[in-house]
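Methods — Computational structure assignment.
A single polypeptide chain was analysed. Its primary sequence is given first, followed by the predicted tertiary structure written as structure tokens.
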Amino acid sequence: ESIVQVGAKAHSTVLVHAEDPAACSEGVRMGIKEGRTGLQAWSDCRPSTSEAASVAKISEIGRKYGSNLYFVHVGSTAALDSILVEREKGMSNYYIETCPHYLTHTTDFASNTGKVVPPIRSKSDLQSMWSALRNGIVDTIGTDHVANRLEMKLGKGDLWTALAGFPGIATMLPVLLDHGVNQRRISIERVAEVTSHNTARIFGMYPRKGT
């Protein structure tokens, strides 16, 4: 049995990291071989098309079993669009989570500290995430928190040995309040929805939590 089938039987919500592992593995292999550097290289080696392909694949399984699918750390337009296309087909419940770093950073960031999976993307992708957050398409904000120390994170000083991921718990609310509320992208009520109310509802904790 697949985890999606098991989750459906238990009436659970299945959290999905949507990237095609084969495509990403080959992309990274080629990136190392070509000696590429920088966050644009990391994004190219783990392309957003692999996210879209993974969304379509897991959605096909999800529809078969009527699953609740929660797509974690979504940060690209391609992934968003793929989820919305699959959601229109029905037979599954879909939820979308993004993270603070997909609302603040792009591949222009000139440091390997920005290495994360899925990668941060373009300015266009960043604007898509804010639009989706503002318009209710994004359900929740997660942190994808990885408690790396800086010396661990940076590895041997190159893109390929640097670890993926970084702390996010401390940045989530400041990003939403400063980049979101203070810059008039979203309301304070929307912050409460995506950090508390929606999360409690999706994971069966409402109204004990999220009110």
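Note: DSSP finds nine helices and four strands in the chain.
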